[in-house]
Each structure stands twice: as C-alpha cells, then as structure tokens.
Batch of 2 targets.
Target 1
Amino acid sequence: MKAAVLETIDAPLVISEVELGPLGNGQVLVKILVSGVCGSQLQEIAGYKGNAKFVPHLLGHEGCGIVEKVGEGVTTVKKGDKVVMHWRKGEGIESDFPSYMYKGRKMSSGKVTTLSEYSIVSENRLTVAPKDTPNDFCALLGCGLSTALATIENEANVQRGESVLVVGVGGLGASLTKAASLAGANPIIALDIHDKETMAKSLGATHFFNSAKEDIKEALGKAGIKDVNVIVETSGSAESIRDTLPLLAGSGRYILVGQPKPGASVEIMNAVHLFGGEGKMIKATQGGQFAPARDIGRYIQKYAKTLDTSLLITHRTALDKINDAITMMREGKANRIMVDL
Ligand SMILES: [Zn+2]
C-alpha cells in the first residue's frame, strides 16, 4: 500500500510503498477513505514531539475509514463498519504498536495513523459512525473538530453571551470559532497574522484583527471590548501568549491548545492582573479532554446534518501531493486540508 512516511526530521515526507505487518491482538485493519492534516503533523515533522528517535514512521491522527479485518479480541467494531479514527482513547483494547515493513526493514508506528491507504489501528482509537455520516465530518471528529467542541463546551465551559477570543485561525482555530458560535458566545473575536477576516466571519466571528498589522489591545479598545472571558490560543507562539494573556477578564479562562516549542518560555506581563476579579485560570489542554466514547456519537447526532464542513476545509489533495499541502499549512495559507485516499 501507499503511505506518507516521515523518514527524516525536517524533510519532505516520502510517498512510498509500505507493507502491512500481521494483525495483532486488539488491532484492526482499516481502509482509509479520507484523512485531515493536523497542525500536530507539522510539529512531528519538525521533531518537536520527541518523535525523532522513532523515524521512519507513519503520520496522521484524524481519519474516516472502513474496517477491513479485525484482530483477536476486538469486539467494538466489525468488518464493514464506518469508523472515526481518533488519537484520544475510546472503548476497546489498547493494543501494542503495529508493525509495517518499509524498504525491507521492520517499521513500527503509532496506535493510530491515517496518511496511508490502509492502517493497523488499536481498537480503542476507533469509534463506529452511522453509514450516512459524511466522510469529512467523520474524519474531522478524529481530532480538530472534536478538540474544538470539547475545548469550548467542557474545558472552557463557555456560556451563552460570554466573549471568546480565538488566537490563530488555522484548522483548529476555524473549528474553535465555529464551536464558540454554536455555544452562543458573543462577541467572538478571531486573531491571526494572516488576513482571514472573510473566513473567520463566515464561521461566526463578530470581529477579526490581524495581529501583524495592529495592536490587539488597542484594536479591542476601539471596538469597545475591554477584556475577554475565554481566550483559546492555538499558535503556541510565546509572544502571542504573552500579548493576549493580559486581555483576560476577571473570571476568565485562558486555554492553551497550541504547544509552544520545547524549551520556550512565556513571559507573564504585570502578573498581578491574574489575581483580578474571581481569579483567572490558565490551562494547557489535552485535546479539550475530548472523550471519544462519550462525545463522538453525541457530536454526530447534534452536528452531522447541520454543520457545514466546507467552511472548515479549504483544500483537498491526493496523498502524492501531501508535501505541497504541508507547505501551504506552514505558510498559513490553508485551514483544514483533507487528503483523499
Ligand atoms: Zn490533531
């Protein structure tokens, strides 16, 4: 089968033949229909995730596929099922790492990978979706969209009428803007270093500011917004965190979704402001604590028919062209890119 292989850190992915290994206990063979490319993959390619020692390996952690075959002990999915492929743990067995053959040598890989024609996946990284669930929606539930919904609904507990600032309107930021709008937040302010006003407003942002061109504090002041109840930071930039933290309201929640570079430090300006109001919270979230077994079925029921994923997806590509997609993401020219397998 064809797969995108991370062979060398900080180099283009290699599109190559990879041989599937044997199906072990608790493992499932999935034929992949579509996969999203998440910002995490850029970090993995750069070696930020402590993954340099594991190369070569496979990538991707949000996908939609069809179960081809199940290994011993698997009970939650069966051949022919449509599945959401997700990196957070759901129901079923936590299997060993799957094995593949690449260029004549054994290659191990993560418990879920999605940027290949087929994948061997740990049972607990799969959740069945009804057959009529749109493939793209299904794939987005693997990471980006679920992280956004869970961050807004659970982690930040956004209440109707609260103000939300989304910092960085890439793939995840776009989903967060939409999730804030679904939660009834108002105003919803989107901030990016690229001009993404039209896109952000189509997803429900009431304001958009370009932080490369204007000072966010001043811009908010001019718009009559003194501070913000919830800030969700997706860029992971230490400067961006430093500049937006002072905008937090008295009982505000600051949620870090984008991870800073290893070794990076963040400065808290005039730190006493953190004690204003009821006390402020800063939290580094793990996927919004999205719980596949609890949330995927619920999100499908609530949003599969009404949420227009074409607003979140800016590009589609074939696996062969994935390096172009990754370059576009790095340059901030794309939101979610879907890879059709
Ligand atoms: Zn992701």
Target 2
Amino acid sequence: MLVAVVVLLSLLVSACNSGGVPTTPSDTVFPTTPPGNSSPVTVVPPVTGAVLSIAMPIDGADIASNAFGLLPFGYHGADHAGGGHSGWDIEYRQGAQVRAAADGVVQAIEPDIIVPGRTKVTIEHALGAHIYRTVYANLSSIREQIILGGAVVRGQPIGVAGTVTATIAATAVTYAMSHFQVDDFEIHREGVDPKAVSPEPFLNAEGRALFDRIWLRSAFAQEPTEPFISMSRDQRFPLTRTWRLDSGDGPAGLSFTRTSGVAADHGYLVLTQSGTAIESGAVTLRVLARPFATIDLVTPTGPRLGLYDIVGDQMRLALGSPGAPRPADLGAASVYRTTRPVLSERVSRHAGDTRVEGPSP
Ligand SMILES: [Zn+2]
C-alpha cells in the first residue's frame, strides 16, 4: 500500500505545477523570518488594491472523485515534502474543460515543465495596483480562443484537464486533473512558488458551495495529519495530530504521526481521556475504498479494521475490536474533532480588509 501511495503521489506531483519564481510585474520581495515549527513565516504586505474574487475552475457537472477529488493547499507528500503543495489539485471528469476562475488577461501559455506534452496557462488579474495570477497546469489541450494577451472571462473554458493513470493498491486508476494555483504579488515566501497562497479565502459564494461538494468526497493518504483545505507549507516533521472523541463509543482519543513529508504512512496511539497512550501501532489506509475509505490500526496482536471519513476538523470513525470484522458502514461511527491551526504565515492585508489564509470557520 505504501508503495502504491508513493507511486500515486509521484504521479500527482509530476502532474503538478511546481514552477519557479514568477516574473514581474510587481515582484517585490518583502522580508521574512526563517520558517520554523513555532515561528512560521509572517508576511504583511502593504495596503493596496482590492481583493480577488474567484469561482472554482471547474463546472459542477465535471467534478469527479475516482482518485482523490481535491488535494489541498499546503499538504506535504513526495515533491511537496519540503515546500508543501502550492495550490489545489482538482480532479475532473475525463475530457472536461478547466475554466477561468476570474476575469483577466492571458499572461502566459507555456509547456508544463513537470509533465512533457502538457501545457500551463497563467491568467493575470489586476485589481488596481494589486496583481494576482491564477495558474492552470497539466492541460492536455488549449482552446483556440485562449491567446497570449487576450482577455478571458470567469467560467470561460481554457483547455482540457490532462489524464493521469496510477496504480493504487493494485488497482489501476485513470483520472483527469489540473493543478490550480493563486499567486498574490503582494506575498513572498522563500522557495518554490513564492507567491502562491491558498485559493480558499478568495472563493465567491457559488465557488465555495461547489468547493464544499468536492471536498466532502475528497480523500487522500495524508489527511489524518493534514486534514484541512489550507495548511502551513512550512510544516516540520515528525508531524502529530490528535483527534478527540466528540460523540460515540470509540476510544477517547487517537493521535496520528507521520515521520516525514515524503512518507504517507502513519503511526497511531489510542489515548485515554487524560491523554495517556494505551495502545500503539501502524496505520494502513485505503483511501480508494468505496463507499468509504478504510483504516486499519495494526497492533502486534492483530488489526482493528475500520472505516473512516475525514472532512476538515471532523473524522467519523467506525472501528472494530481486534479480530472483529470491518464495520459495514459509518452508521454507528464515533465522531472525532481536531484543532484547526492558526496560520500566521499567509497574512495578506488589503484595503479595509485583513485576510488570514487559514481554514475558514
Ligand atoms: Zn498541484
């Protein structure tokens, strides 16, 4: 399973835009503090311009979750192990068009350097003096109306989301995806994609509703420790996340730990109410299981077989006793909650408006 997950991640990452430093126009570098566990990069840009409003770059009829649905901003895996994911990987119905998230001007049409034969389109959105760009990568073809310097409108088709084939748990999965990224030229961080910010706070109401539909069905191997839509790209490992029982008859607490950003496998602890660990072992996830992903807690005395579903800070978990069969569904699942992080590394201060690009309430 681990090998399969790594293969999947490699393919996902290879289909990602992990481009380098954007070109000007307003490529101003602001001072940052070094990344760290307790002191994430804090960037406070000057107050100018207006706030970008975006739609999801996908039509509601084109959403798909054969492989993952959506991979969030900031998560770590494979090539994103060090820098964290700079955008969203959005799964599309095969053959579906990727759509412009906002009105703008085509700033670049270029080969996707990560995936031979694929194309990356960048659209610039100038709101007064505040420059944003949205990036659409892994496109297998481009619409003829998309020309360098040409105007585009929100929802306009840009091109077809490229297909990817991966083997996951001995199952060949073919899906279409595009890496979507928002660059804010009043933001700078060191490393790859220095202007990239989470798209989440820029979504308009319709975009947010569509996003929520996609997110409800999304599953990925890192979600026990990185479950949020927007996470810190400056995460350090080992990374532990604790989930506390909210309702149900499951264990009072569970904690999951990943030893590195490359690895997708987790260790676990079963916790008492007071936080004392009373059981430990390894976690086996099968995120492609249908209709719910499976989770096995493997101890020396045998596995506990379970089903789970994580959406943001909530986990539903139906866990069997050691040696017992896997629960049939999540009907009797216990509900767990985890703490949302407060992110200080993505502070983008706009006129009359302060946006902290952490998860929304
Ligand atoms: Zn990506």
